[in-house]
Design goal:
20% of the residues lie in helices and 38% in strands. The protein is built from two helices and nine strands. The strands form two sheets. Strands 2, 3, 4, 8 and 9 form a five-stranded antiparallel beta sheet that branches. The chain has a four-stranded mixed beta sheet with strand order 5-1-7-6, sandwiched between helices. The radius of gyration is 14 Å and the shape is globular. It starts with a strand and ends in a 6-residue tail after the last helix. Keywords: Hydrolase. It comes from Pseudomonas protegens. InterPro entries: NUDIX_hydrolase-like_dom_sf (IPR015797), NUDIX_hydrolase_CS (IPR020084), NUDIX_hydrolase_dom (IPR000086).
């Protein structure tokens, strides 16, 4: 099955490897993710979604794999995205998605298991990324 969702992965190294995440005002902690539009590659969709949801301009630098989420037929394509300059510790961005929301961005240590504040779907996605990027088991 082809991927129908794209997930841009922005990483940084501080004291440990961290991944860009955000607080959705209605649905808990999440990663940036969105629908792949008709005729669009998953890499292009990942870069577009990062700009739309986070206000971050980036380039796709590497395919990290597919994930069959088990949720509503969603197959996610993960793409590492590189940003040209360091991003702040935290910021907010208003997106027009779903009628408009203000997302609060932060850095999640990738090795840390996600708390119950994380939407369950994104807990699974983080498990896969921990496995791919850190070599750790996906099961919490």
């Amino acid at each position: 099955m082809r991927a129908n969702k794209a997930c841009p992965v922005v990483l940084r190294h501080s004291t440990e490897l961290e991944i860009l995440a955000f607080r959705h005002p209605l649905a808990g902690l999440q990663l940036v993710k969105g629908t792949v539009e008709a005729g669009e590659s998953t890499a292009t969709a990942a870069v577009r979604e990062l700009a739309e949801e986070a206000g971050v301009q980036a380039g796709e630098s590497g395919f990290l794999g597919l994930w069959h989420s088990g949720f509503c037929g969603q197959v996610w394509a993960f793409h590492e995205c590189r940003v040209p300059a360091p991003l702040p510790e935290s910021w907010s961005h208003f997106t027009a998605d779903d009628g408009g929301h203000r997302f609060e961005f932060f850095w999640q240590p990738l090795a840390s298991l996600p708390s119950e504040q994380w939407h369950p779907l994104f807990q699974g996605a983080l498990g896969l990324l921990r496995q791919r990027l850190l070599g750790e088991g996906a099961e919490a």
